[in-house]
Design brief:
With 82 residues, this protein is mainly β. It has two helices and six strands, in the order E-E-H-E-E-E-H-E. 11% of the residues lie in helices and 52% in strands.
Length: 82
């Protein structure tokens, strides 16, 4: 079973980070560095995670600029039930 754990929001900065609308009670576990999240189009691997002014910012492997992350805006993020 898949759980919706978040949604990719706006890009933050120029290095490919995105704001995440968190939809899980365990964001530190679901979005840990190295964790894989599922989308409708495949998988994304978390490369960085930090909180800035109360907002979770995530960087994904292979996405290194603002344009890359903007293409994923509003993408829903899922994890398998554990």
């Amino acid at each position: 079973m898949r759980l919706n754990v978040g949604r990719i929001g706006r890009a933050h900065g120029i290095l490919g980070e995105a704001t995440i609308e968190v939809r899980t009670a365990e964001p530190e576990r679901r979005f840990a560095i190295g964790a894989e999240v599922l989308t409708e189009n495949g998988k994304l691997k978390v490369a960085s995670a930090r909180v800035h002014n109360g907002i979770l910012l995530i960087g994904f492997e292979g996405i290194t600029d603002r344009n890359g992350i903007e293409k994923l805006r509003n993408t829903l993020l899922y994890r398998d039930w554990e």
